[in-house]
Amino acid sequence: MATDMKDKVKTMIWQGNKLKLIDQRKLPFKQQYVNCLTFEDAAAAIKNMTVRGAPAIGVTAAYGVALAALKFRGDDYKAFISHLINAMDIIASARPTAVNLFWAIDRMKKIINSNKNESSRSISSLTAKIVDEAVKIEKEDVEINCKLGENSLSIFEASKKKLRILTHCNAGALATAGYGTALGVIRSLYKAGKVDYVLVDETRPFLQGARLTAWELHEEKIPFYVICDNMAGYFMSKGEVDIVVVGADRIAANGDTANKIGTLTVSIIAGRYNIPFYVAAPVSTIDLKTKSGSNIPIENRDEKEVREVMGRTIIPDYMKVKNPSFDITPGENITAVITEKGVIYKPFIENIRKLFN
Q: Is the per-residue pLDDT at 119 higher than 90?
């Protein structure tokens, strides 16, 4: 399944000295790739939403550091390290909420630091190690997502009913190196014959659901309906939603979860109608250093994203707007967190900690 998905949707293509990213701003109408030749290109792609989704951002960040190493010119080892640190700082500043970005950079820092004790500090040798680590991170991400999808089956194995699933934003192959987190769960359930249909929130203002999730489901021939964000409550109240599955950009130590704006609202309505609410994310999205959701930085993006839809102005400049990109869903609203290491249930503080012991 993972191989099939990899053939159909390529979020990124590493070509040894450059990174090609599918331009998610153009989907579903155009399938166009952007070439990242430098770490600055990779940072810009993260910042301007060419690539988005926490795991995909993390992998792109890793390749950004690889590009920084590959493009360095000179033979001064200290200057090389200084160049890499500067590149990592710039990449890290691209977006503040997705913890996978910083997790990937930390892995690169460990590779660099492990080279300090070598008697012969070779720029070419360290560059090769950095590139290898980036490739490894991409490969691991696909494997993790497939395992995550498999783990979700244990939750529903006793159910003979086909599920009607609601999802918000895009946590599919496009948001990862392949297969997906929340959409990976849906793919695995569909393959097991357990999906009736998927309700896809459009996810304003960037329309990741309507443009990206719906496109992926169409490619996979999984039955779905696109709905406006403010329709979710209607379908829940009518008994037409069995479960909610979403992704995550950061999960705090207590289970509080940052995800695309609107996720909090969906969780509250799901709670009102006793609908299980699942978060699907790799363990790398869990940030033990962040004690609760109140400590997660929330990115505020350009108001133009609210004023325009697909390049067409719908709100004039004289009207004030706000555009927070994420909100925090309290752990108490979440039924379970599905990871590659298993399904985490409450109490989250205790059970999340066990994953890291």
A: no
